[in-house]
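Priority: medium. Attachment 1 of 2:
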């Protein structure tokens, strides 16, 4: 396992030294190094005790902590896709039919599909 190789925001490159306990096949090592990592999902949440502690301690700003959390970063990254989905659904909702015959024809066509 390896951590961050370099200082965030300062180093463009970093070095990592890997040490193996056992001999490993070349293909297995290559797959480990060049393969994809598992998704990292935040499990951060504000609970009752955190709220109480923030009230007790003056220096804790929960909004500041939340704004810089991995959870907020992940939610911000999802925002453009969610906005696009919302726009698509709003287009579907805005479709209107002026005549009942058109609606009935649409229904019959959908049944045939």
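Attachment 2 of 2:
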């Amino acid at each position: 396992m390896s951590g961050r190789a370099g200082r965030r925001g300062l180093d463009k490159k970093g070095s990592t030294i890997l040490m193996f306990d056992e001999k490993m096949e070349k293909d297995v090592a290559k797959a480990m190094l060049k393969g994809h990592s598992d998704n990292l999902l935040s499990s951060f949440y504000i609970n009752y005790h955190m709220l109480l502690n923030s009230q007790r301690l003056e220096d804790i700003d929960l909004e500041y902590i939340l704004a810089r959390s991995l959870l907020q970063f992940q939610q911000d990254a999802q925002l453009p896709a969610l906005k696009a989905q919302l726009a698509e659904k709003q287009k579907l909702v805005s479709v209107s039919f002026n005549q009942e015959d058109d609606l009935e024809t649409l229904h019959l066509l959908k049944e045939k599909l």
